[in-house]
Every structure is written in structure tokens, then in C-alpha cells.
Amino acid sequence: MKQSILLDGPKFQITIQRLCRQLIENHGDFSQAVLIGIQPRGTYLAKRIVHELKAMLGVDVPLGALDITFYRDDFRRKGTGPILANSTHIDFIVEGKSVILIDDVLWTGRTIRSAMDAMQAFGRSEKIELLVLVDRRFSRQIPIQPDYIGIQVDSIDSQKVLVQWKEEDDQDSIHLITEEV
Amino acid sequence: MSSAAEQLSTRHLLGIKDLNENDIQLILDTASNFKEILNRPIKKVPSLRDITIANVFFENSTRTRLSFELAEKRLSADTINFAASSSSVSKGETLIDTVNNILAMKVDMVVMRHPHAGAGVFLSKHVNAQIVNAGDGAHEHPTQALLDSFSIRERYGDVAGRKVAIIGDITHSRVALSNILCLQKQGAEVMVCGPTTLIPKYIKSLGVKVEHDLRKALNWCDVANMLRIQLERQDIAYFPSIREYTMLYGLNKEILESLDHEITIMHPGPINRGVEITSDVADSKHSIILDQVENGVAVRMAALYLLAGKRG
After folding, report:
1. Taking an 8 Å Cβ-Cβ cutoff, which residues of chain B contact chain A?
2. What residues does the Phosphoribosyltransferase domain cover (chain A) (predicted)?
3. CB-based contact B240:B182 (threshold 8 Å)
């Protein structure tokens, strides 16, 4: 197994701050926008962004967590069996708001499709945007593109992209993992 | 995320007897996720949209049938309903023939209630579909026990270590047997209480306490599960009169308030108001009877979802 670091240290923090400034550019004081982190690992990024926005704007941006397990299109395929769900917490009104979906890595796009499907259950939002820390470009299986991108990575299917968080894994870093054949 | 295994160990849900502790945790954990979904404006997920489920009821039911049907619809499954009273069963068709005819219409799962113990097990050996037991005679009613445990967990945080008294007609109750097994597998203590004639002779072999004094049982327990007197299953008279039963085993406000601690009251329904439980107790803040009904849909969604995951 070969591991290379794509991003860490101060650059990681700068990337997060840039994403926050891009969000402020489009959503101002966030009076009409809400953030939703996709379970499980999108929620770490979402919490970090809310933390940074609080430092920059002094406001608490509404933050939710969305689990997409029951909306997946691969249920009962690949022999993986059912997948244990994570919890969903959305304790604000989504109707008429701009929803910014947040995930750590965008790969095939299927998770995001499921997430958009799941969001409909909470009402008709004005707009849905997508923010990702890592965009594995050229590997999409459905036509989904992010609105805010931390870094873009060219990778092949057999590789893995792993995002680590200080809160969970003791460091902020993005790794590209290659299984040796 | 819970540490429970991510797959059920069984392909059918025939009884709590066949489930291990992980299966029970997995179903209850998944049910909490479904309960959140049931509070959304749109209470539906697409997971089972390619599954067809037949609800085959050879015995009357209100709650269980509606609850299963709603759970199936919330999971986007297609459903068909079959009630024995209005079917060809009255013309002499056998159980296997009836079910195979239903399966010929491309049905994937069968939810069955039957007056005879073991009907689900029998069917699972002879037809090619997943079977969910919605009550078989006086044997088991697994989803009821699971939703009872879910309700206890919701109230107390954990089932382990709780003291649960099951009170009333134990002999004729499938709810009692499933609950005893389910609660014990999760580490709860169980007591049964009722007149000698309504408590099976060998029930102690299951490791439960037996008590014939209602007040003692209530003072011992955290949760009292009051069962209905099942007159329709009683071929002989097991006690002199309903009035006498009520005087000795009926739960009323006076007894409840005289206990040395607060307890939670459960009832699987349908309630015979004024027999095993009075209206003021059934509708009091101690009662979680309607929570049980609400939780029933979430628990059945979890069971069906996880069983569907066992179909390759």
C-alpha cells in the first residue's frame, strides 16, 4: 500500500477558509441559507466550516446532518447487505432556503444523488448547492458537479482518497492511497 | 454508529427465539433511524421499491395489520392484503396452496398471522419467500416484543437491568413468550404474574420469576406489561368471572398510586378497558401504550428493511 499526502498543515486550513469566503460571497449573512453535512464523514467538514464562519461573521449558521442510507441505489447489490444507518438531525425549516450540501470527497456522484433525493423529504428548498473538500474529477457516474471545491484530484478507481480530521484522527490531512497489486 | 453487526443472522423473522442479541440491537438501532424519518414532512424512503409484500392474515388484527402495511408503504414496497375470512380458505384450500398461489403473482415476502403455533416455521420450509411472523397462535409475536423493547429503551435508555412484569393471561399469550425471550436476551429481568390457571406450569424453566400477587409484582417492577384476557382462545373457564379477575388482577389508579415507586405501564392492545386495566391508568402519564403503537411502525420498517437486505 502506497500513501501520498495531497494536502495538510497550513494549506489545509487555508483551503477551508477559502471555501468559507466563497460561501460568504454567495450567501452573505446566511439568513436564507443552511448547511447540511452528509453522514458520516461530511459532518466533520460541515462542523469545521460552521466554526470558521462563526469566527468570520459572528453568526451561528444553521447546521444539519443527513444520513442517506435508505436512499442509496446500491441497496442489496454488490452483496454488501444492508448498511447500518447513521442519524439524521435537521431541526430547521428547509422550505424556501438555499441548502448547501457538504461532503468530504466527491467521487461517483451517487451519494449526492441520494442526498438530493433525501432532502426532498424535508420540503422544497429554493436551491441546492454542493461543497466538497476533494473532487475526484473524471470519475463521475452521474452528471453531478460541485459548486465549491477544496482541491481537485486525478485518480483511478482502485485508489482511495482519505480525509483525516484533527477532531477524529489527530491531524488535518488528505491522503491518496494506492493498493499495490 | 453502533457496534452491532450489520446483517441479521436470519433470513426469516419467525420468532425472537431465532434472533441473537446482535440481531435485536441491529433492529432497534435501525428503528430509531426510521422513527426520525416518520417525523419528516415526507415519511417515505425508496429502499424497498422493488419488493412486493403480501400481508396474509388468517386471524383478525387491527394494529398489527395496519402497522405492517404502513411500514411497507413507508419503505416504498408494493403490498397486497389477504384476509382468510374473505378468501378461498373457506372453500378448503391448504395453507401451502394459498401461499404458493399468492407467490405465483411474484411476491417476495409474506407477513403472516395464523391461529396455529408454528405456521410461520412450517411455511418457511415449504415456500420460496421470506416469512415474517405477525403472530402464530399462542407461540410468538416477534415484532410486538421488539417494539415493546424499543419503547422501554426509549423510556429508560437501556433494556439491560430493567425489571419487567408481564401480567395477565400468560398461557394464551404469544406476546408474553416473545417478550420474555426478547427481554432476557437483552439482559432484563422478567416476572410473570397472574392467576395460577393462566400461568403455564413449566414457565420457570425459561428463567422467569412467578408471582400471583399483583401488588407484589408491581412493587418489584420498573415496567408492567398488562396483557389482555384472551376469551376467544380459552376453551374452558380459567377463572370464575371477569369481575373476580378484575378485582384481583385489574390495574387501577388506586393501586398505582399506592406503590412505593413510579412504574411504566404498557399494553399490547387491544385493551379491555375496565378488565385488566382501567381507563384512568391506560390514559395516564405512566402509560406508554400509544408510544408503543407509534414505535410499531418504525420497528416493523427496520425488520422488513434488514430482512430485505438478506435477499442477494
Report:
1. 1-2, 4, 6-7, 26, 29-30, 32-34, 36-37, 40-47, 305-306, 308-312
2. 3-161
3. no
Domains (range + CATH), chain A: 10-156 (3.40.50.2020)
Domain layout of chain B by residue ranges: 16-140+293-308, 142-289
What is the ipTM score, two decimals? Answer: 0.84
pTM score, two decimals? Answer: 0.91
CB B1 within 8 A of CB B303: no
Shortest Cα distance, chain B CAs vs residue A90, angstroms: 9
- Domain B16-140+293-308 fold is Rossmann fold (3.40.50)
> Which residue does chain B place closest to A68, by CA atoms?
B45
B26, closest residue in chain A (CA to CA): A84
Q: What is the pLDDT of residue B3?
A: 41
Mean model confidence pLDDT for chain B: 93
pLDDT grade for A143, boundaries at 50, 70 and 90? very high
A48 Cα to chain B: minimum distance (Å): 20
